[in-house]
Amino acid sequence: MGKGRGKGRSSGWFSKLDMFVKLDEELLHESTYFGSIVSVVCLVIMVLLMIMETGEFLNTSFQSKITIDDDAMSQIRINFNITMHDLSCDYATVDLLDVIGTQRQNVTADIEKWQLDENGRRRMYQGRNRKQYEVNHDHEQHPPLHVLHENGVHAVDVKTGTWESFTKDEEFSFVDFYAPWCIWCQRLHPTWEKFAEDMEGAGLPVRVAKVNCVEEPDLCRNQKIMAFPTLRFFHHGDPVTGGDYRSDRTTDALMDFAKRKLEMEDQYKKWPEARQAHKANWNPDHPGCLLVGHLLVNRVPGNFHIEARSVNHNLNAAATNLSHTVNHLSFGPELSPDKQRRLRRLGTSVPHQFSPLDGQGFIHQSLHRSFHHYLKVVKTTFALRRQFTAFQFLTFNQVMRYDESEVPEAKFQFDFSPMGLSVSRQGRYWYDYVTSLLSLVGGTFTVIGIIEGTIYHVLKPKKE
């Protein structure tokens, strides 16, 4: 018996270091139904804990911390795509100001304009935002207005009550919408009267007229007169395509314009299909404009604003509506699709924080009002697989009221935070994961074993 017990064993102190003690095969073991149940429960708990630990290992967490923004970048790019619902591209200008003295009016670089149809869709490319050049006048070459009126008034003064009959009787008409206080209108009066006299002398079928918008505000409002003077060519009361005159205000230039319009209308009469296509392009009710482009701004508080301005007109403040929709507005370089996918992994709302105004409309019906937007810009650095920087911003929008003589503007006021945000990935090493798995398995087996042994000894029937 002693001989068998010592088989395969070493004697001495070293044998006591064996942590894996073996039992003799002769020793009996006892399996119980209760022990089998506990074993199954133990296995289920182990599997569940392993699955949960594996999921936690595969699930990447992110840590955010506030840092001081010490980036030496001198300028930031502002990307924008804004629809002005009731502002003609001819008068839409973009200005840029900041607190260190930068003042750029009618920014033309890297900005495009698109004319919109009545549904707000892009209808015609208006080209890049061009500089506004002054037009020529020849009022000094003509006698004063009272001298020109000695042989009769040739430019008909049309009122609201006579507008319908006037446009019905006259197939073609060329109308000057003016305001008596407008300096450009005052310069145009002698030229316009002489032009009307020359048109009658030439026998051309175009009636030259004028409308005082101060005395007839409803008529000018219905015609959406935004600036003075507005010279518009009509066919039976409907503005023709390209009917707003924008060239030199001289009798020769006005005469050439009227002749070209008559020639075009004469050609359209010969081809009914072309006439219908021509009518389809008439768009008197929606002088909207889409502004697309970007600006480079200094990293200091400032603003860019969109307003109506012309070097050759006085703007009608009461008819200037700055309702707009921000299709897109962001700071910094445009995010690539790959970077956008990485941001979406942080959360469904994270990409929205970098362009929170996208798709929002700011519409107002009251006169002398406009929306101002206040933007707090925060630089955000993402230390993911590849590090990149983006700019998120918070917004606050407010309707501002203007005096009756002031032309409203849609203002975007920005301020860069001196603090930045750093977002980094918090992953786990593989050996941490393996250690956790072994701890869960061993710990579960030990604890369940202690519980099972305790219950077994308590419930085990005692031998008499």
UniProtKB/TrEMBL annotation:
<dbReference type="InterPro" id="IPR036249">
    <property type="entry name" value="Thioredoxin-like_sf"/>
</dbReference>
<keyword id="KW-1133">Transmembrane helix</keyword>
<dbReference type="Pfam" id="PF07970">
    <property type="entry name" value="COPIIcoated_ERV"/>
</dbReference>
<keyword id="KW-0472">Membrane</keyword>
<dbReference type="Pfam" id="PF13850">
    <property type="entry name" value="ERGIC_N"/>
</dbReference>
<dbReference type="InterPro" id="IPR013766">
    <property type="entry name" value="Thioredoxin_domain"/>
</dbReference>
<dbReference type="InterPro" id="IPR039542">
    <property type="entry name" value="Erv_N"/>
</dbReference>
<dbReference type="GO" id="GO:0005783">
    <property type="term" value="C:endoplasmic reticulum"/>
</dbReference>
<protein>
    <recommendedName>
        <fullName>Thioredoxin domain-containing protein</fullName>
    </recommendedName>
</protein>
<dbReference type="GO" id="GO:0016020">
    <property type="term" value="C:membrane"/>
</dbReference>
<dbReference type="GO" id="GO:0030134">
    <property type="term" value="C:COPII-coated ER to Golgi transport vesicle"/>
</dbReference>
<feature type="domain" description="Thioredoxin">
    <location>
        <begin position="136"/>
        <end position="263"/>
    </location>
</feature>
<dbReference type="Pfam" id="PF00085">
    <property type="entry name" value="Thioredoxin"/>
</dbReference>
<dbReference type="InterPro" id="IPR012936">
    <property type="entry name" value="Erv_C"/>
</dbReference>
<feature type="transmembrane region" description="Helical">
    <location>
        <begin position="33"/>
        <end position="52"/>
    </location>
</feature>
<dbReference type="InterPro" id="IPR045888">
    <property type="entry name" value="Erv"/>
</dbReference>
<keyword id="KW-0812">Transmembrane</keyword>
<feature type="transmembrane region" description="Helical">
    <location>
        <begin position="429"/>
        <end position="451"/>
    </location>
</feature>
